[in-house]
Specification:
This protein is of the alpha+beta class. It folds into 3 domains: 52 residues, no CATH class; 58 residues; 98 residues, Glutaredoxin (3-Layer(aba) Sandwich), CATH 3.40.30. The chain is built from 9 helices and 4 strands; from the N terminus they run H-H-H-H-H-H-E-H-E-H-E-E-H. Helix 4 packs antiparallel against helix 5 and helix 6 packs across helix 9. The radius of gyration is 40 Å and the shape is elongated.
C-alpha cells in the first residue's frame, strides 16, 4: 500500500512540474505577437514530445558523396616554368616544395622523385645566388664586414687577443684604488681552496683588495647579498652601495679577468647591458649593437 502511494506521489510530482512549465510557456506565448508565437514549438499540439521525455535526436541527413570536398590536386612541374619558380615568393616556393616532397613520398615513382629533387636543386641554386651577392655586398661596403673587428686569420687573431688583454689589464689596474672584491667561502668547501690559489695569482698581478667572508661564521652578511653558493665573488666600489656578482664557483684566472673587466665597466656606467661584451677598440664597429642607431642610410 505504501509503495502504491509513493508511486502516485512521484507521478503527481512530475505532473505538477510539467504543469508549471507549461503554464510559464503559455504565459510567455500570451505576451508575444502572433507572428513570433507561431515561430515557437507548439507544445500543446504535440504534448507527448519534447525534452522531458528523453526523445532520441533526429538522425543527421546523409552526406551526398557528390558534394564532398575533393582532395587538392597533386602539383606537377609541367604547370610551372623555370622563370616562375625562380621569381616565386619564398613562402610560396617553400609550400610548393613541401607539396612535391609529399607527392614523392606518397608515390615514389621516378617522375615524382625527379620533380622533387629538381625543386630542391632550384632552392639550392637560389641560396647560392643569395650567398654570392651577399659576399659581393660585404666586400663592397666595408662597414658591413665584421671581419675587421673579429679577424680569423692568424696574424689578426694575435693582434685582437693582444688588444683585448691590454684593455682588460689596464681597466683592472686603474680600478684597484677604489674597488674591491668580497670573497664568500666556507671551511668545508673544497672548491674554495682551489679558488684561493687563483686569487693569490690575481692579487700578485693587480694588487687588489679581497675581503674573505666565511658564510658559516657570518650568515647575516651572506644573506644580505643573497649568497647561496661558495665560492662567490662580488665587486664593490668605495662609497657606493652598488655591487655586482663577478663569479660563482671556481673560475680560471683569465675568466676572472674578463668577467671583472666587464663588471667594472657595468658598475661604473661605462657600458650598457647591450654592450656587455664589446671592447673599447670595437666601439662603433660591426660588433657594437647600438652603433647602428647612429648610422644614417
Amino acid at each position: 500500500m505504501q509503495t502504491v502511494c509513493l508511486k502516485k506521489l512521484i507521478r503527481s510530482g512530475k505532473e505538477m512540474v510539467l504543469f508549471r512549465v507549461l503554464t510559464v510557456v503559455a504565459f510567455v506565448f500570451a505576451g508575444l505577437p502572433d507572428a513570433e508565437a507561431e515561430q515557437w514549438p507548439k507544445f500543446y499540439d504535440a504534448a507527448k514530445q519534447g525534452w522531458f521525455w528523453y526523445e532520441e535526436p533526429a538522425p543527421e541527413p546523409e552526406k551526398d558523396e557528390a558534394t564532398a570536398p575533393m582532395p587538392p590536386p597533386l602539383p606537377s612541374l609541367a604547370d610551372y616554368s623555370i622563370e616562375q619558380l625562380w621569381e616565386m615568393h619564398p613562402d610560396d616556393f617553400q609550400d610548393l616544395l613541401l607539396e612535391f616532397q609529399k607527392k614523392a613520398v606518397q608515390r615514389p615513382t621516378e617522375e615524382n622523385v625527379h620533380d622533387y629533387l629538381t625543386m630542391q636543386d632550384l632552392a639550392r641554386r637560389k641560396a647560392a645566388a643569395y650567398a654570392n651577392v651577399a659576399s659581393y655586398v660585404i666586400q663592397k661596403y666595408a662597414d658591413l664586414d665584421v671581419g675587421r673587428e673579429y679577424p680569423v686569420a692568424a696574424p689578426g687573431v694575435v693582434a685582437r687577443v693582444k688588444m683585448q688583454k691590454e684593455e682588460i689589464s689596464a681597466t683592472i689596474r686603474d680600478a684597484a684604488a677604489d674597488h674591491a672584491l668580497l670573497y664568500f667561502a666556507s671551511q668545508d668547501c673544497s672548491y674554495c681552496q682551489e679558488q684561493q690559489q687563483i686569487l693569490r695569482y690575481f692579487t700578485d698581478r693587480y694588487n687588489w683588495q679581497i675581503k674573505e667572508i666565511d658564510v658559516d661564521a657570518k650568515p647575516a652578511i651572506a644573506a644580505r647579498f643573497g649568497i647561496r653558493t661558495t665560492p662567490t665573488l662580488l665587486l664593490i666600489a668605495r662609497n657606493r652601495p652598488d655591487y655586482l656578482p663577478v663569479a660563482s664557483g671556481v673560475v680560471a684566472l683569465d675568466e676572472l679577468e674578463r668577467s671583472l673587466y666587464r663588471s667594472i665597466r657595468m658598475l661604473n656606467g661605462q657600458i650598457t647591458p647591450q654592450e656587455y661584451s664589446v671592447y673599447d677598440f670595437q666601439k662603433g664597429g660591426g660588433l657594437d649593437p647600438e652603433s647602428i642607431l647612429k648610422k644614417r642610410f
